[in-house]
Specification:
The complex is a heterodimer of chains A (336) and B (300). Chain A has 336 residues and is of the alpha+beta class. Chain A is 31% helix and 27% strand. Classes of the chains: A alpha+beta (336), B alpha/beta (300).
Chain lengths: 336, 300
């Protein structure tokens, strides 16, 4: 019993009489405990769903502050346009579906004009999380790499980059040396007004580095996007959806074609196992060893599930490479 | 999922090791033999080009459009003059909807719209029974009672379906277009069997004046990836028109990028319109392609 504790009547009562040093130790202990607890939660669960649950909504005014009103002689026209998940199709034909599949929150479009010069257009997407900002950037990585934001490419008058929870597109309606300069300058100004950087999806850490073609990494949620990068099936045989996160990457090999590695993380182990079953049933119904099949072009496809993860290696030839890649993933786990 | 899904492996079986190649191999989907394909009656497609169609600002010249359309329609319908071709398509008591495309980067040219309206009126159709529209056709009073449709739009790559062309242009005839985006818009041809549309289309015009052969960014457009092809594709079969336009876009991509670079995603809705929905024909072996006018850089 603590020396300060005393008894009164039949009931046990504790009366603390802490010294200054005791109080200090207690506060420090409590602080460490709280930080450990909070830190533990954050370290343990870096998944997309956890990130998504912490989204704080931004307003159009928040986005407006990130874009300048003048750049290299171009001036913003007075009316910005703002679109949400429902109205995006009024602005973007076709590709609106891509941004919706990445859970985009808000889009602010600002047009810049200068007499006798092509218009410049900024589309600033608030994607809610840095994971989705990165993901939507990986949807189209073609172009010359430039130093803007956390990753950027420039091609045909278009600069695309991501930073923090934002994906940004700056576009000149006609490309000239002047518009190229202005587009890059505009991008850099927006970059500098976004104060912090965002985290990459932790799923990326599972990709083995040997042979990895970094420029082919794509991060996504839905099977439509998977099919865009690598056609698997018209049906959703991997049970992908808004709650799953997936990373696809290409590997250089000694074979005639590159290997594709797909890693999917499901909300729970049961869903991962179910998806593995559905995939095997549809993609390799005749497989002798469950999850492994030599397909029609002579290459191998291998699918393994462990915990919440499902890993599929496509186009591996010979099968040793598939096994090697799959096993590297499955045993380099960051979680059960 | 009761039936086994179609997967990449099904394509590998047909494509003999070239992924998705079957999408470009005639007759591969329907499993028809070469002999069967050759015996099937051919569908006529006219490709007409004129290098003077665009002025120095890239704007189409009305008089050249008129000339190209006239020559093209005579060839398509086997008539000696365009008026006769128009009379085969449109009767005076028709209510005519001219379905265009308003996409701001590459809309249906105003000069073509004017030409079409003028010719329809010459068939005796009163102006109040003619409408030109894209979005909102479902609630448009003329389109609601239309007995004839003319489908005219530019060819371009499309982010979600691979290619935006004649078949896809009817997506505005459904209340929720995004519901048709599944599997790269695979079943767009089904729209053509809805009562608003079925059997009404008299002419498809795939505008190839400055087609977009590659798309980038949120808006899937850069002027850098268009070129003055200066052509029009005419057909009564939207699938044949689209399949022909697609071959030209593919060739342009090959020329520009210096390598085979298939459209991404593969515009399989064009082939499925043939093999799954039987809306028209996609195989070059079943298309009688008539090439008129400027031949340089024709790519097909």
């Amino acid at each position: 019993m603590h020396p300060g504790a005393s008894m009164a009547g039949s009931k046990m009562k504790f009366k603390f009489s802490l010294s200054y040093v005791d109080t200090l130790f207690f506060i420090i202990f409590l602080g460490i405990f709280i930080i450990s607890l909070a830190g533990g939660v954050m370290v343990k669960d870096k998944s997309y769903l956890s990130e998504k649950s912490r989204i704080k909504s931004l307003t159009a005014d928040d986005l407006k502050k990130l874009i300048p009103e003048n750049i290299s002689g171009w001036k913003a026209i007075p009316e910005d346009q703002v679109f949400n998940q429902e109205t995006i199709f009024n602005y973007i034909d076709g590709a609106g579906e891509v941004y919706r599949s990445y859970n985009f929150q808000l889009l602010l479009a600002r047009r810049f004009q200068q007499p006798e010069k092509p218009d410049l257009v900024v589309d600033l997407f608030d994607m809610g999380t840095s994971y989705d900002a990165f993901g939507v950037f990986t949807h189209d990585r073609e172009g010359e790499k430039v130093d803007v934001g956390q990753m950027a490419v420039y091609k045909g008058g278009l600069l695309s980059f991501w930073k923090d929870r934002f994906f940004v597109s700056v576009y000149a309606e006609d490309e000239t040396p002047k518009t190229r300069e202005a587009v890059l300058a505009l991008g850099r100004q927006i970059d500098s007004s976004i104060n912090r950087e965002g985290k990459l999806p932790d799923l990326l850490a599972l990709l083995p580095s040997a042979g990895l073609d970094h420029d082919t990494i794509s991060y996504f949620h839905t099977h439509h996007i998977l099919n865009y990068h690598f056609y698997v099936s018209e049906e959703n045989i991997l049970e992908l959806g808004s709650e799953t996160e997936a990373v696809l990457a290409r590997y250089k090999t000694s074979g005639r074609q590159p290997i594709y590695l797909l890693i999917v993380r499901y909300p729970d182990e049961g869903k991962a196992l179910y998806a593995w079953n559905i995939f095997c049933k549809n993609y390799m119904p005749e497989a002798r060893i469950p999850g492994e099949i030599r397909v029609e072009d002579g290459s191998w496809t291998m699918a393994k599930q462990r915990g919440r993860l499902l890993t599929v290696v496509f186009q591996s030839c010979p099968d040793k490479e598939a096994r090697s890649l799959g096993e590297k993933i499955l045993f380099k786990r960051i979680e059960k | 999922m009761k039936k086994r899904a179609i997967t990449r492996r099904d394509f590998l079986k047909k494509g003999a090791g070239l992924p998705l190649a079957c999408a470009f191999i005639p007759g591969v989907f329907e499993g028809k033999s070469q002999q069967q394909v050759q015996q099937t009656p051919k569908v006529r497609v006219v490709l007409i080009r004129n290098k003077d169609i665009l002025d120095d600002k890239g704007k189409p010249r009305y008089e050249v459009i008129e000339k190209m359309m006239g020559e093209g329609l005579c060839e398509l319908f086997g008539t000696s003059n365009p008026q006769e071709a128009w009379r085969q398509m449109i009767k005076a008591d028709d209510v005519v909807g001219i379905k265009t495309n308003v996409w701001n980067y590459l809309p249906t040219p105003k000069e073509l719209e004017d030409y079409l309206k003028k010719r329809v009126m010459e068939c005796g159709v009163p102006e109040e029974n003619i409408a030109i529209a894209d979005r909102g056709v479902l609630s448009h009073p003329v389109f609601q009672k239309a007995t004839a449709l003319i489908n005219a739009r530019p060819a371009r790559t499309h982010h979600w379906s691979g290619m935006g062309s004649c078949i896809k242009n009817y997506i505005q005839f459904v209340p929720r277009p995004y519901e048709w985006h599944g599997d790269s818009c695979a079943d767009l041809a089904k729209i053509w069997f809805l009562p608003e549309v079925k059997g009404k289309t008299r002419l498809n015009i795939l505008v190839m004046l400055t087609p977009l052969f590659h798309g980038i960014g949120p808006h899937h457009f850069s002027k850098q990836y268009t070129w003055p092809y200066c052509g029009l594709i005419l057909s009564q079969d939207p699938v044949a028109a689209d399949a022909t336009g697609l071959r030209i876009l593919q060739e342009k991509r090959k020329e520009y990028f210096g390598e085979e670079r298939p459209l991404q995603p593969v515009p399989h809705h064009i082939f499925l319109a043939d093999t799954r929905h039987h809306l028209g024909v996609s195989s070059p072996a079943r298309i009688e392609l008539i090439k008129l006018g400027w031949q340089e850089g024709i790519l097909i």
